[in-house]
Design a protein that fits this description.
46 strands, Immunoglobulin-like, 4 helices, mainly beta, 4 domains, 43% strand, 10-stranded mixed beta sheet, 561 residues, disordered N terminus, 11-stranded mixed beta sheet
Length: 561
């Protein structure tokens, strides 16, 4: 006989009594028998097991039996109805409800029946555990009010089928070594990272999940590793295959349960960075973060003050600083200003002990790190890239149409670019600038190159407004105007300022605008000046949230990133 588990129901019954006590007060004229309603709770719901593992090989075998005892017999004047309910804890699906008045106080479920209910009805994943809650409510109707008798029982049920990317523990397995347990990162509990030396040969990732011993392995058996994230699958450990490490060396491994991928890279092939810092005696105080540029996720840049001394760049990845960027050649290296210098990734401790660049003197430096091509450029003040100077041009309108004659031959560096056109309705503007100009649609100057300007943010609007001359309705047109810094430090501009427009056929004297339709991700030519190009526009692609303008090489790219 299967052991039965009786569920205590005192809390539920007490709650029912409390609710009904308010009802009784409100219905003061009812004839209530408190002795019966208080003391006659007799329904007991039991399950054949608290934990059930469904067996795919025995679909018609009973996996779970539920039974309950009848409620108290109040006599022939009372009718009892049983409400039987089944639900999966945490599921958004509605509970299954049945009414029983024929004296059948038992329910049997086969392996297949429970599997179909859990997977198809309640959306439980295959090969996972879920808690099913069963409830029986005995409702009694008769001359006197009787409190419902409620009993519940919970059963943990594990479905069969394809295994999921779920784990209680994750390990790394290689030939000739004991399994190494991996731990999730603090920032992402679904991502497991390992860095260290591994031997050449087969590698896979054992997983403990409940009563299962599984493994994460490649979809294709004995697959050679690549530098990209590789598709993975979960199988029983006895059926696992593996990836192949080509040689003994230091590797960084990332197992991503959300993406269902594994990434295995030899340290030095690809540099993975969450954040990058400057460190060494050239840095005063704490490490200084090096910003990731807007124009290139693999490009990092800094411009600021450094002291004479050692310089290396610690890497923060997966919440830890284990490695640093240092010269590719061993030891201390002198700086070759404004030149690409090869770099490599080494242990942070090694960089601290004597693998770094030597900054020769105090000063302002620009540092640009290309993590993809693995080189670094260091600029001193004397060798630094200078902002492009444009002019002379008539800047009177940018200053509120002042009559200051000296502004007719204004020259100055480009430090800010504004977008202008029908894309934002042309009439909307910020305080202090003419219609059409908004600060949120300016382009930011790159730290890596002051002649590169980038917008990266929300999708640009594509509104419709009248053509500047002909008043035709144009959608999504844009060009770029130079900002002018006044004595009070405020950047101003005007549609009669120095401009970067398209190569479209436009003519100021004939009052004719021109338009070129841009394609996402394609580099287009710019035309600079204060003549016909001020009426030559680009039509931006839909969903554009990235614009890069190179004022030195006269190129523009519209894209979605």
């Amino acid at each position: 006989m299967k052991q039965k588990y009786e569920i205590k129901k005192s809390c539920l019954r007490l709650l029912g009594m409390t609710v009904l006590s308010f009802f009784f007060v409100a219905c003061g004229n009812d004839d209530i028998d408190n002795n019966y309603s208080r003391n006659n709770y007799e329904v007991n719901l039991t399950a054949s097991s608290e934990n059930v593992i469904l067996d795919e090989s025995k679909p018609n075998e009973v996996a779970l039996t539920l039974e309950w005892t009848p409620s108290h017999d109040y006599g022939n004047d009372y009718i009892v109805t049983y409400n039987y309910q089944m639900e999966l804890v945490g599921s958004k699906a509605d509970a299954i409800k049945e009414y029983e008045d024929g004296g059948m106080f038992i329910r049997n479920y086969t392996n297949k029946e429970l599997q179909d209910l859990l997977v198809d009805k309640f959306d439980q994943l295959t090969s996972t555990k879920g808690v099913m809650k069963f409830t029986v409510t005995a409702s009694t109707e008769g001359p006197r009010l009787i409190v419902p008798d409620i009993a519940t029982v919970s059963v943990t049920v594990k479905t069969y089928g394809a295994k999921q990317f779920m784990a209680d523990k994750v390990f790394l397995a290689v030939e000739g070594q004991e399994d190494i347990e991996l731990v999730p990162t603090a920032s992402n509990p679904q991502q497991y990272v390992y860095s260290g030396e591994l031997p050449a040969g087969r590698i896979y990732f054992p997983v403990l999940y409940g009563d299962e011993e599984n493994a994460i392995c490649p979809v294709t058996p004995d697959m050679a590793i690549t530098t990209e994230s590789m598709e993975a699958t979960v199988v029983d450990r006895t059926e696992t295959n593996a990836w192949i490490l080509p040689e003994t060396g230091n590797y960084r491994i990332t197992v991503d349960f959300d993406a269902k991928t594994v990434k295995i890279i030899a340290l030095g092939e690809i540099i993975e960075i969450d954040k990058l810092y400057l460190a060494g005696s050239a840095v005063t105080g704490e490490d200084i973060e090096v910003a990731r540029t807007l124009e290139n996720d693999n490009l990092y840049a800094f411009r600021g003050e450094l002291k004479a001394g050692s310089l290396y760049l610690p890497i923060l990845f997966a919440d830890t600083k284990q490695y640093a960027i240092a010269p590719k050649t061993e030891g201390v290296q002198d700086v070759e200003y404004a030149q690409d210098m090869p770099l490599k990734q080494i242990a942070l401790e090694k960089a601290m002990r004597g693998a770094y660049w030597n900054i020769p003197e105090d000063g302002i430096y620009r540092i640009v790190v290309d993590a993809e091509n693995q080189n670094i450029r260091i600029y001193s003040q004397d060798t630094d890239i200078q902002s492009k100077v444009v002019g002379p041009w008539n800047a009177q309108n940018a200053f509120g149409n002042t009559q200051d004659e000296t502004l007719k031959t204004y020259s100055g560096p480009i430090e800010k670019l504004w977008m202008y056109g029908t894309f934002n309705g042309r009439q909307t503007h910020d305080d202090g600038v003419p219609a059409g100009f908004q600060d949120k649609y300016t382009l930011n100057q790159s730290l890596a190159n002051p002649n590169v300007f980038v917008y990266k943010g929300a999708n640009l609007p594509r509104q419709t407004a009248g053509d500047y001359w002909e008043k035709n309705q144009i959608t999504g047109s844009v060009m770029f105007f130079v900002g002018v810094k006044t004595d009070d430090g405020v950047e101003r501009t005007n549609n009669n300022a120095y401009a970067f427009g398209s190569t479209a056929d436009a003519d100021r004297d004939e009052k004719r605008c021109g338009y070129i339709t841009a394609t996402a991700g394609t580099s287009l030519e710019l035309v600079e000046g204060q003549d016909d190009n001020r009426y030559a526009y680009f039509i931006i692609p839909e969903n554009t949230n990235y614009v890069m303008v190179d004022v030195e090489n006269l190129k523009v790219i519209f894209d979605h990133k």
